[in-house]
Amino acid sequence: MAKPKLAAQPSAARHVAIIMDGNGRWAKKRHLPRALGHQRGVEAVRRVVRGARELGLEALTLYAFSTENWRRPEDEISDLMGLMKRFILSDLDEFAGAGVRLKIIGDYKAFKPDVVELIEGAVARTAGNSGTTLVIALNYGSQDEIARAAAKAAVKGPITPDAIAAELDTADLPPLDLLIRTSGEVRLSNFLLWQAAYAEMVFTDVLWPDFSADHLREALEEFTVRDRRYGGR
Ligand code: IPE
Ligand code: IPE
Ligand code: MG
């Protein structure tokens, strides 16, 4: 039997971003290798992307690898790259078929050539889609993004907030409505610092591998009762 659909459009949120944190702690709690935590994290990605589609989100941005994550041991970085490649190979057909458009933010070209090639192929394949945009942040750091944007803006004219915003990796996305972080940490870890200026935030203790489409829906329900004032009254 087909699974029941999630309630359509429970909120007006257009763009949700998630700091997917806690894979290591999830594995540690179970005396399992970290790599298995990352593997189960990919399953959570799959669930949440399906949920975002069913909820009709315009954009879902997932923080998958930060500019600071290069500080991790080489074998963990290589596990993460392997998982990313496998995820694209196994899931691209489903997402492409469902109208998902894939977009990458961050300096992903610093990855190994085979990874870059796979990513670019996947992006090209979904470029004409008009459903949910799945944005994956790869080798992404907000400070790096803002510095790159400011440098581009400076070449064109005066550096104003609008001029910088127009050069950010996220320039073509709807404004960020809701930022979720799993695992109990209450920090942004260099993610979407500019875009989060007026985003609502939900911090949950749920570890990323345990995160479900229902958790996403709960966060969106919380979002609907927030009073967004943007500095006005
Ligand atoms: C998030 O889980 C995945 C990435 C940062 C790539 P972590 O690996 O950071 O898990 P914890 O924070 O150590 O539990
Ligand atoms: C943030 O998680 C980066 C990603 C989820 C990709 P980290 O686990 O790297 O963040 P810190 O080090 O706890 O701040
Ligand atoms: Mg972490």
Features of the shown structure:
Undecaprenyl pyrophosphate synthetase, single chain, 6 strands, alpha/beta, six-stranded parallel β-sheet, 233 residues, binds magnesium ion, binds 3-methylbut-3-enyl trihydrogen diphosphate
Account of the protein in words:
The protein is of the alpha/beta class and 233 residues long. It has a single domain (15-141, 176-224), classed as Decaprenyl diphosphate synthase-like (Undecaprenyl pyrophosphate synthetase, 3-Layer(aba) Sandwich). Helix content is 42%, strand content 15%. The chain is built from seven helices and six strands. The chain has helices spanning 23-29, 34-55, 74-97, 113-126, 142-156, 161-165, 213-224, and strands at residues 15-19, 59-66, 101-105, 133-140, 178-181, 200-203. Helix 3 packs parallel to helix 4 (113-126). The longest helix has 24 residues, at 74-97. The termini are far apart. Residues 7-11 have low confidence and may be disordered. The structure holds 3-methylbut-3-enyl trihydrogen diphosphate (2 copies) and magnesium ion. Residues 19-21, 63-66, 69, 185, 187, 189 line the site of one 3-methylbut-3-enyl trihydrogen diphosphate.
CATH H-level superfamily:
Decaprenyl diphosphate synthase-like
Percent of residues in helices: 40-55%
Order of helices and strands: EHHEHEHEHHEEH
Tell me, what's the shape? Answer: globular
Distance between the termini: 49 Å
- The CATH class label is Alpha Beta
Tell me which ligands are bound. Answer: 3-methylbut-3-enyl trihydrogen diphosphate, magnesium ion
Counted beta strands: 6
The Cα radius of gyration reads 17 Å
